[in-house]
Design brief:
This protein has helices at about 10-20, 25-35, 40-55, 55-105, 110, 115-160, 160-170, 170-210, 210-215, 220-270, 275-320, 380-385, 410-415, 430-435, 445-450, 455-460, 480-495, 510-525, 560-565, 565-575; strands at about 340-345, 355-365, 370, 395-400, 400-405, 415-420, 495-500, 525-530, 545-550, 550-555. By secondary structure, it is α/β, with parallel strands linked by helices. A hairpin with a 2-residue loop joins strand 4 and strand 5. The longest helix is centred in the middle third of the chain and has 53 residues, at about 220-270. The protein is elongated, with a radius of gyration of 35 Å.
Length: about 575
């Protein structure tokens, strides 16, 4: 499975500029809104130097009406531009979030296993929100204001270039000021972003473990642990705030100083008769606009660095090379489900402990094979390797005689279904959770799958039947009911390969009986791999494979293994199961 992902540019500004074409309509309105205000200094000078001096009231009224008209057009173009920019920015962020979630489907589990869910959620939700906010502010506010400032600066240069140059001398001074704080602001924002990710990850983990924490009565321990992460984030944000306040105060002082110098310079030229009072008034009216980009930068600098860190965080995920490297494209027209393991060895990433060692096994098409053995013997690893969630370091797996690496992994997974001990349900309706395996299934197909899974009766007794909301992770229904919904989901898929991983180990005997009955029904006519702890659930299996420390130490039928003096017989005795 290749990752054909777009590689994102190196900074949030580059990312924005590379996507400016999508904002061209909004930017067009921004330019028009700027042009509407460009004549204002000339009009102000005209009013003071000509109309006031000559007491020409009609001309004064006409000029005032022109100013009002220009302001109205400026308002209309500003609203239209903001709407367009906001719409396109939303689409851009939608694509970015979609890219993030799509990337998660390609990332190798060796990478995902080392990531906290909260950290990934922070990238998806919080970091993209920061990028969205700064993109909107830069394109809708800063860029138009910069255009307006440049336009007015040009007008002011034409009106009186000496005074204009004095005013524009602020820009290099501000650049020097920014360079003094740039590196420290960037570094401390990075520290804040990492502290935010750690807090989100720890909090998400603690929330998922609330039942365990409360059951142990260890609320104080967990709260203290979360408080430590929260303190680090608070302390990091405090450092950023102090540094940012120093920068803003310094920049604001510089702006006010140059405003005073500009006013003093203008007054000097007016006293000397080098400029008219209208020109001086026009300069003073334009001064806040010319300086507004500088003032906006001081206000946006903290938000920009926050967004920049958010972008680096997102880019780290999007550009990650820790992806599944399945590159096969073959599909089997009539898959039978025959599986062959040839001397497969495997160790989980970042570990040196081999979970499987020279694992060799042939599973006939349509047969039911059970894997048993002590915890840590590699049973679940076998199932995960079949589905390509991990890749063997040695040996190979064949499906219907075709190497797994040659097959389209997504296609192979779509021919399979899994029923796990820890059932994962989505927070939608009962019908939605069953239909997940076959999105286009009809209501009747959903009900038929539920009937085969012994789930139709309890579903019918729910408050809204198949439209009942099951709650997050299915907490609104019992464990046995969740298990039967999972089986119904597997039945609806009609897979060629079915994997049952400890599917009944956590159930009471009554629920186990209903689930086991449903599993026998769904196992008919397909290849089934059962990973079992409770040996009473695998009596119907065609073949039993006994594992220990990643190796096969016994394999035979249930009755034959029970009569032998081996590990399987020992496990039967420990569970007080009869031999025959």
């Amino acid at each position: 499975m290749k990752d054909h992902h777009y590689r994102y540019p190196g900074s949030v500004l580059v990312h924005i500029f590379k996507n400016l074409r999508v904002f061209r309509r909004g930017m067009g309105f921004a330019i028009l809104r700027t042009l509407m205000l460009a004549p204002l200094p000339w009009l102000f000078r005209l009013i003071i130097d000509t109309h006031v001096a000559t007491a020409n009231i009609p001309a004064l009224l006409v000029t005032a009406l022109i100013v009002v008209g220009l302001l109205f057009l400026h308002y209309a173009f500003a609203v239209a531009g903001a709407s367009e920019i906001s719409r396109e920015n939303g689409r851009l962020m939608l694509r970015l979030r979609s890219d993030i979630f799509n990337k998660l489907h390609f990332l190798a589990f060796g990478y995902l296993d080392r990531q906290k869910t909260g950290r990934l959620l922070s990238k998806y939700a919080f970091d993209t929100q920061r990028i969205e906010m700064i993109t909107m502010q830069l394109i809708n506010q800063f860029v138009p204001q910069m255009l307006y400032s440049l336009t007015l600066s040009t007008v002011l240069v034409l009106m009186h270039w000496q005074l204009a140059l004095l005013l524009l001398a602020l820009v290099p001074i501000y650049g020097f000021t920014h360079s003094l704080f740039h590196r420290r602001l960037k570094q401390r924002q990075r520290q804040t972003r990492l502290a935010q990710e750690r807090l989100t990850g720890a909090a998400s983990e603690a929330i998922n473990a609330l039942r365990l924490v409360r059951s142990f009565g260890e609320e104080d321990q967990v709260t203290e642990n979360i408080d430590q992460f929260s303190y680090r984030l608070t302390h990091s944000r405090f450092n950023v705030t102090v540094l940012n306040t120093m920068f803003n105060a310094f920049a604001h002082t510089m702006v006010q100083l140059f405003t005073l110098l500009s006013l003093a310079g203008g007054a000097y030229f007016a006293i000397r008769g080098a400029i008219t009072m209208g020109t001086l008034f026009a300069f003073m009216a334009a001064l806040p606009v010319v300086l507004s980009p500088v003032q906006m930068i001081t206000g946006l600098i903290e938000q920009y660095y926050v967004a920049q860190e958010g972008y680096f965080s997102v880019k780290e995920l999007l550009d990650s090379t820790y992806v599944e490297d399945w590159q096969g494209t073959r599909e089997i027209k009539s898959m039978t489900g025959r599986l062959t393991f040839e001397a497969v060895s495997f160790a989980y990433p970042q570990t040196d402990i081999q979970v499987l060692k020279q694992f060799t096994l042939e599973i006939a098409a349509g047969s039911h094979v059970a894997l048993v053995g002590p915890s840590g013997s590699g049973k679940s690893t076998v199932a995960q390797l079949v589905l390509g969630l991990y890749k063997p370091q040695e040996g190979r797996i064949l499906v219907d005689g075709i190497p797994q690496a040659d097959l389209s992994m997504r296609w192979l997974r779509q021919q399979s279904a899994v029923v796990l001990q820890d059932i994962l349900l989505f927070s939608g309706t009962v019908a939605d959770n069953i239909r997940f395996a076959q999105p286009n299934a009809s209501d009747e197909q959903v009900r038929e799958a539920a009937r085969m899974a012994n789930a139709d009766q309890f579903i019918s007794e729910l408050s809204k039947g198949y439209e009942t909301i099951v709650g997050e992770r299915g907490v609104m229904i019992s464990g046995g009911q969740r298990q039967r919904l999972s089986i119904a989901r597997a039945i609806l898929r009609n897979p060629r390969l079915l994997i049952l991983d400890e599917a009944t180990s956590a159930l009471d005997y009554e629920s186990e009986h209903l689930v086991q009955e449903a599993l026998l029904r769904v196992a008919t006519g397909r290849t089934v791999i059962t990973i079992a702890h409770r040996l009473s659930t695998i009596r119907a299996a065609d073949w039993i494979v006994v594992m220990r420390q990643g190796r096969i130490i016994e394999q035979d039928t249930y009755s034959e293994l029970a009569q032998q003096d081996g590990l399987f017989a020992d496990l039967l005795r420990m569970q007080n199961e009869p031999a025959g």
